[in-house]
Amino acid sequence: MSNENNSIIIMRGVKKIYDLGEVKVPALKNVNLTVKEKEHISIMGPSGSGKTTLLNIIGCLDKPTEGEYFLDSVNINQLDDDKLSEIRNKKIGFVFQNYNLIPQLNVIENIGLPLIYRGIEEKEIVEKAKYYANLVGLGDRMYHRPTELSGGQQQRVAIARALVNEPVMLLGDEPTGNLDTKTGKEIMEIFIKLNEMGRTIVIITHDPKIAEYGQRVVRILDGEIIDER
Amino acid sequence: MRGKIYYLLRIIKIGVKNIFLHKLRSLLTILGIVFGVASVIAMLAIGEGASFEAREKIKELGSQNIIVRSVKPPETRITQEATTFVSVYGLLENDYKMIKTIPSVDLIVPTWEMKEEMRYMEKSIKGRIVCTYPEYKDVMNIGLEMGRFLTQIDIELIQPYAVIGYSIRKSLFPTEDPIGKTITIRNYSFKVIGVAKEKGVTTGTTGFAAEDVNFDVYIPFTTGRSYFGEFEIASKEGPVSKWERNWVKYHRFIVRVNNTDKILTTSAIIENILKINHKKDDYEILVPLQLLLQAEHTKRIFNIVLGSIAAISLIVGGIGIMNIMLATVTERTREIGIRRAVGAKRKDIISQFLLETVILSSVGGFIGILLGILIPKLVTKFAGMTTVITWWSIALSFTISVGVGITFGIYPARKAAYLDPIQALRYE
Q1: Is the sign of the CA dihedral B53, B59, B60, B62 positive or negative?
Q2: pLDDT per position as a tens digit, A158-189
Q3: CATH topology of domain A39-66+74-228
């Protein structure tokens, strides 16, 4: 157990079965996974392999049907919707393939979004949002709308938003999927830098080149982890 | 606590922003509420105005009074050539004596009246000469601007004194002090001893004929009788101008009852007396209190009918808002997913959408209030009806519009909150 003390993610025998009425579709069969603090891992698998389901569970958007999942020593299985929301708000920073920014809000407002659900004073939110906008190199775009930004810039906003609540882990879902190679590389370099600064990073991808950035690559196929190195 | 306030301000800001993002849509959405609220306020103002008018009229006629009036019966026997025919009708000495004996009758003040022109120097004006007694002042609530009213001594000495109405004074004595001046009525001279205070003119919407007592002149009953007799000579309208002559003993009795509860029974007794004394239908009994009750009853029906219309339009308005909010939820599915992913709880989503609906309906309510204040003003201006806008009708309709927002906002807000965040995030 001593090696689990500094683990961010501990999954034991996690199963996820989708009940579609007549048929039950097993998306995850038996997943055991441990991610240590300050680790950068890639979860790789083709589409339909169950990696999206795994991402949803890691990200606390969904709960496993069976098995145990501890995130930062918190047992996720026992939490209700409100508590899961709180976990997402405090411990996880999401970076999505399609950026998922709110078009009506400007860069600062998008970055500050997670903080408004904590009842933090407006001034403090803006201050923090500005700090992270500068960190991802968007200091001169702070009052632009997402539609006025390039894909790479939008993804930087998303990364800043994922960082603003100081989570225990950044969770990337094909973060470079919508970007060209060059921009994708830039985004991955940001992740590496953040990892060097001590962030735990989990990236899910089907692209081996992106997966290579990780210190460890976990391969998933048909709902099972087939390879780990 | 502070955090909660910042959070609330934040979602209000987002709500307002989203409403302004779709200006036309928001405007169309709230239209139902606007008209609903406007109609609530307007109908209450009109209903309130009608009862206000009735109350004013009662105040003028006296709620403890019963007014018995001579009415010229239909001229069945008077033919074109019968120009010298004198119609004899109206209240008689006997009526006066009998009504006076009713125990519940406190006071009975008779009048004899005629429409006549009066002159002062080169100015002249037509008014109503009311020959009466000192008690008339009390039963009809006449206030005095200056001078005094008629006294018992004036009656006994058959004094040629006159108390003039406010408008008569304005026309005949615009700058002078009228007290002590002499006015002329049918070549008889009268000394002005008092001026009555101005009284509100009531329009004829509550069952009363419109009349303006500011054009009245009060003279001692005895003086009137000795100067003008009991004949009333008036020019008659028609193809050929001719005179009509009426013999009327008394034009009106103002009967004051000693107890408001006995008004209806007293008026029934008076009715019976008159029925026995008169073969013709040449009298009329007005009970101000009864007319007030009628006016109140009419107002209640009016309120129920218009209230239902207003309620229906508010419900329709609410459904309109719900419809748009449901469309908004669908349109903003992705946004909801994003907010949920970064940590918004269900109740955060509910409060955001609910607040947005409430802001919409409140803005609608506010515009409706403005419109609801404007409509009664226009009604007053163009239809001549009295309207009274009460503060509680504004408070009520605003509360209702906020209530509609909450009621019809709950379903869309809950729908938004219970979306699966995973699906919402992938929604295109």
Answers
A1: positive
A2: 999 999 999 999 999 999 989 999 999 999 99
A3: Rossmann fold (3.40.50)
